[in-house]
Each structure stands twice: as C-alpha cells, then as structure tokens.
C-alpha cells in the first residue's frame, strides 16, 4: 500500500520516471524500450523522451540489436555497471578504509589509512582529502563518493552523536568537511543503513522489500528497508537498535540510556566477557576487540566448551536484539553481519532458539534470519551502495539533464 | 530523500498524480488549477486532464469564481469534506464502537454495541453486519468503512495475533468477514497506526512528516510516520512497541516475550499496581481497568500523594517507552494518547524527566512530546482516518475512473 501520507514527499514525476528507468536497467540488465515501458507502466512516448535525454547525458547507451522476447531482435538499452566507479569510505574508531567500486558493487581497489588516534584525526582527514583527490584524478570513471559512519549519525546535521567508539570524531562535521571538497558529490550515511543498502543492491539472493541489516560488531546498528523505503527518522537517527534498552535496570551506556543492547553483544562487550574467563585466551588483555573475538571464534570452532558457552551467551543477547527487530520493524529477512556474524552457525542456532521461544509464531514463520554473504566489513560495500543508490535515484546530480 | 529503493513500489504515475491532487484539495481547501499545478509541479495540461476525470466521477467539483492570488478571480476546485461520509469501527476486548464521520474527521454519530464476551463474539459480528448495513442504507454519502483493531494485527493475513486483550477475537478473520460484506469498501488497520493517521489528518497543529502516535491504554501500541511513510512491516505488524522488551529478565507476556512494555504501563498493569496499594481505591477490585485508572487520576488531581507517586512510577515506564521510540524511530513529535494520557501534565512532566536523563540531547532537543488533542478513544477517529486516507490515495476504489 502506498499511503496518502507518502505522496507529500514525492519527487516530481519526470524525476521519478527517470529514476525508475535507471533502476530498471540496473536491476534487469539490457532491456528494450518496449520492455521498460511494459514493466514500468509508462507510455512508449514517455520512455522515448526520457531515454533520449539519458543517452544524450551519457548515463545509459544503446547496445545495438539484442535478442528480445519472442525472438524478435530489437535495440537494447544498457546501464553499463563497469563504466561508472564510486569511491567508498568507511570510518570506524581507529580505522579508515577506502575502496573504489564499480556500479555492480565489485571492489576494484581497497586501502587503509594509517591507524587513527584521538590526536591524529585532523591529519587523517587531510590525508583522506589527498587520497580521494588522487583517486579521482587517476580514474575519470569515478562519479561519486559514499561514506559510512557509525551511528547515531545525525544525517541532517552531518555529525555523529555521543558514542564512545567515535568520541574523537564527534567534532568532525562530515557534510562541511567533505560535501564540496571534490569534483564529484559526496553522500554520508550511518553504517548499518549503508549495509542494508549493500545487501539490497549487491546480494542477488535478497529479493525482499522488507529487509533488516543487523550490524553486530564494534558497535551494534541496524538499517531497515520497509516496503522499499529506508527508515531514516527525522534527523537520520532512526533504527539505532544498539541504544535500545533490553534492561532498564542494566548497564549504563555513553548515550545516557541504560541496558543498551550494544553493551551486551558488541565486540568490546565480548572482549570484556573474555577477560573475565580466566585463561580462556591467554593474551586477550593485549589484543584488540577484533583479535580477541576472532580468537574466541577459532577456539569454539576447535570444540572448546567454554568458548562455545560464551558465544551462546552472546548469541542470547543477539537473539533478544532480533526480537526487538521483529516487534519494531517486522521485516521478512534479518541479515546479521559484521564481526560477530563470523561466529557462524553456532551463533545463528542459538539466536533461533531465543527467537523460537519469544516471538509470536506468525512472525517467526515468515521471517528468515541469515548471516551476511558480503565480507565482514560490509559497511565499506555499504558506502559504495550509498553512492550508487544516489546515482540511480537522482541522475541530475551527476549529469547535465534538462 | 527518496531512495532508489522506494520507487519499486510506486503506483503508476497517473494514479499518483490523481492522488496528489486529491490530497492537495483535502489539505489546502479550494484551489485553482494553476495553484495546484504550481504546488505539485505538474503541467497545466496534466491538471486539466486529471481534474476533468475527477469532476466527471464526482470526487471533486468546481466552485465557480473564488478570489485567487493577486486578486484575480478564477474558477476554484474543491473536495467537499461534508459531502462524503465514512463509517468507523473500533474493536477492543469487550467494546465495539461505531461512528459516522465526515471527511474532515468530524463525528456525526457514535454508538456502542452491547458489551461483548468471549461467548457473544459471533452474535456481535452479526449485529455489526446489520448495524453497518443499516447505516449505509440510511446515508448515501457513506463511501467507505475503516476498522481499527488492537495490534499485533497481521494486516496481510487479516487476523490479530496472540494477545490477551483480543483472545476471543483471534479466530475472526477481519478481511474474510467484512471485506466483501457491504456495498462500500472496508479497510482494517492496527489501532495505534490508525491513531497516527488520525493525528496526522485531523489535528491541524501537527505539521511534521515524522510523527509517532504512542497509544497507552488497555494495550500499548505505536504508529509511526517516517518522512511521510507509514511504517508497516512485512505483515503489517511493525511498531508493536507494547511487545518490545524493556527488561529481558522481566515479566512474561502472552506474546511469548519477557519484559514487554505493555506489562508495565497498560491499564491492566496499572490496575494491578493499584490493587497492591492497600485502600488506595477502596472498590478497585470490582472496577474495570478503565474505571480504576480514572479513579487513580482523579485522586492524583485531588493531591493524593500515593496516587501521585503511583502515576510517577507508571510515567517512568511510559518514558522508557519513549526512549525506545527515540532510538528506534527518531520522530520529530511523539503524541501520547489513549486512557493513560488522561493522567495529564503530571505524567508528561515525569516522562520528560526520564527522557532528559536517558536520551542523547540532539534527539531530545528536536523532538516534541505532547498529549493527544483528540478524544481518548482516538482509535475510533483513527478508523475514520484509515478510510479517508484510502479515499484520498486510491480514488478508483470509490469511483469509476478511467
Ligand atoms: Zn546506548
Ligand atoms: Zn508481549
């Protein structure tokens, strides 16, 4: 159902149709004008007019004859996903990753900036400007930059809000810093929401319009697509599941709330649990959160009973997070991703046990829980997806289009 | 931002434009074709074509000359909100209310069916068929029926899910029962979501596109409008805040979850708290939940310290619900409605205290918390809003439109 309420924010009709044609070509590959007209319920005249403009602008092109339906040969249109590149940037506490992706989400190059500390943020940003500038100069196909930052990200403001893992970054206004810095446009998004876009655009097995991407890593985040719409919130700070309380008598969190989910199943929380288990991982005290978690998962794969038990405890919290997602967002599919998803089937089985017990069966029966098929650092893919999404949705930001 | 992802579910363009014109006339009153064209960024030719069809179908009409901008007189178009009526039905456990509303949300008549028990549901449904049938026969202006039912309502199935307050109703499939029973179409929606639509359509002071209606009554529910889109979930069971846990070590709930918000601040929960306070309300044991709560609120207004303290305890839970709403949905306004909102400023002040302590200030500073200005049984208004929303959004369901 499209709601009345929905239409107030619609783009103009011609923009909408242009975007729908771009999306159709992106999702379905080479198509004839007649096929597009039929799929989108547009008149042939409208298709001819809009595609002429897109061809003139260089966004799409004709492929010459291709085999259409009923074996009739006709002229195809294509949006060549290899012809356009985007730069993706992923910010975490101490890690800034950069990648160049093609429009299909294939990474062409990936690099990391040197480890960032609270004191080196300014120089990291300078280096980022330089690196991005060089990448754009070297590759004329680059059309946009997408950035993924940990939530809560106040998108309409341009800043992340008080969260320990990004404390040093809070003074950075991403919009002011980057939006006019390059010859191509920059788009910034919360990392889990970017991850949801990546799952939706790049994983061919995901076909639902009701998708939740549940990021369980150094932070805990969520991105939700509901009937094809990304849930944003007024400032862009919706779906911050990491700061939804699972226990109003629980542990305090930097956000001001108590019992935040993030305090129980993020990698820092797991690291803390590991340190309380004497001798489970001998040198856990000197490890990063990522290293400690990966050591734990390796132990469990080797059959270590205490490691398995600890992962089950973590999975219970991850499962309660799923239950909140069920009751808050009722998606058809929850994809669990990022570092903690590396615990694999053991985690997933335990999550299912918690869900089976605590969710009404109608929701349980109609919702798939899967582990992300994208790399653990899907937020980098997500940053690429954010840029690609804008390219498909608002082509005039990228081309001269009358 | 409209997302790429959003456009896959768009209605055809002509339908969308038709609906936008209907909405414009509904929201702005008498308008000239030129004013509509300008506001909606449509060509005069498109406006002329679409409005001609709407006039022919009887959905809108010309008003003759009216004073346009710049003092030029021109022909106005109007959607006469008094000319169309809808029937609204609100289901609760033992109470079925019916009203006839005009398109502006003004109630013309309201009635109740006799109290319904588990054993009389079948006869209540028969009586409802008869009553609705008679209303339609007596009033040719009635164009649709909206129904509001407690959540979790599985809209795509047509049934409510396991919840104690509707246990007897669970066997009723509202879609099978009513959708083809009358000469006008029937639309069923979860009560809090219907309440959100009512706030949005009928309260002129509400102008945000990011609205949460937080129903705290016999159940606890939520309806959220995000950037103009109602959040539905795959089955229509999203935003079931009443069954989001605030304490994973807390009280068990009929839904299978533990620590559900509904177990702490619904009227049955408050009634239970009242009964534990010796002699606070002498005959509380024989009262309904509604009566007990209203007696409590009256005591508090009279200055009774124990009553005030109890309401503050309730308000703390209501406040934690708000915090979950902030972090899950980031609305610009949360409207608290239904029975518990009758506790008034005392409740609201305490809710603010909890929020001030536990929500990041950027969200707190940009979100208004208000008490509903609609009657306590806003779900009845909501049922009307559901039908009106459909009328504006999908006029072909109501008229012969080519
Ligand atoms: Zn928190
Ligand atoms: Zn529950």
TrEMBL record, chains A, B:
Gene3D superfamilies: 3.30.420.40, Winged helix-like DNA-binding domain superfamily/Winged helix DNA-binding domain. It comes from Bifidobacterium bifidum ATCC 29521 = JCM 1255 = DSM 20456. This is Transcriptional repressor. Belongs to the ROK (NagC/XylR) family.
């Amino acid at each position: 159902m499209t709601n009345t309420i929905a239409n107030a924010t619609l783009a103009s009709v011609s923009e909408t149709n242009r975007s729908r044609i771009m999306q159709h070509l992106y999702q379905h590959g080479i198509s004839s004008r007649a096929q597009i007209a039929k799929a989108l319920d547009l008149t042939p005249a409208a298709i001819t007019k809009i595609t002429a403009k897109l061809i003139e602008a260089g966004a799409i092109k004709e492929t010459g004859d291709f085999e259409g339906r009923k074996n009739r040969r006709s002229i195809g249109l294509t949006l060549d996903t290899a012809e356009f590149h985007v730069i993706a940037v992923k910010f975490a506490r101490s890690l800034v990753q950069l990648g160049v992706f093609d429009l299909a989400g294939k990474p062409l190059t990936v690099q990391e900036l040197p480890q960032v500390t609270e004191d080196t943020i300014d120089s990291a940003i300078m280096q980022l400007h330089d690196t991005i500038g060089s990448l754009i100069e070297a590759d004329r196909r680059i059309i946009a930059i997408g950035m993924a930052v940990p939530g809560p990200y106040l998108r309409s403001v341009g800043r992340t809000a008080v969260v320990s893992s990004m404390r040093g970054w809070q003074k950075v206004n991403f919009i002011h810093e980057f939006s006019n810095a390059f010859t191509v446009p920059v788009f910034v998004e919360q990392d889990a929401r970017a991850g949801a876009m990546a799952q939706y655009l790049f994983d061919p097995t995901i076909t639902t319009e009701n998708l939740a991407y549940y990021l369980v890593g150094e932070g805990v985040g969520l991105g939700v697509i509901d009937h094809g719409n990304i849930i944003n919130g007024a400032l862009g700070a919706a779906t911050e599941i990491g700061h939804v309380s699972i226990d109003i008598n629980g542990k305090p969190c930097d956000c001001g709330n108590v019992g935040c989910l993030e305090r129980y199943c993020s990698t820092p929380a797991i690291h803390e649990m590991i340190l309380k288990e004497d001798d489970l991982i001998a040198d856990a005290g000197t490890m990063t959160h990522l290293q400690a978690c990966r050591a734990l998962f390796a132990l469990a794969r080797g059959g270590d009973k205490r490691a398995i038990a600890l992962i089950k405890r973590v999975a219970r919290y991850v499962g309660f997070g799923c239950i909140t997602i069920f009751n808050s967002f009722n998606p058809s599919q929850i994809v669990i991703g990022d570092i903690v998803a590396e615990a694999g089937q053991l985690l997933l089985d335990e999550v299912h046990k918690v869900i089976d017990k605590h969710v009404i069966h109608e929701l349980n029966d109609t919702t798939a829980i899967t582990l992300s098929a994208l790399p653990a650092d899907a937020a980098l893919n997500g940053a690429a997806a954010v840029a690609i999404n804008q390219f498909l949705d608002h082509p005039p930001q990228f081309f001269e289009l009358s």
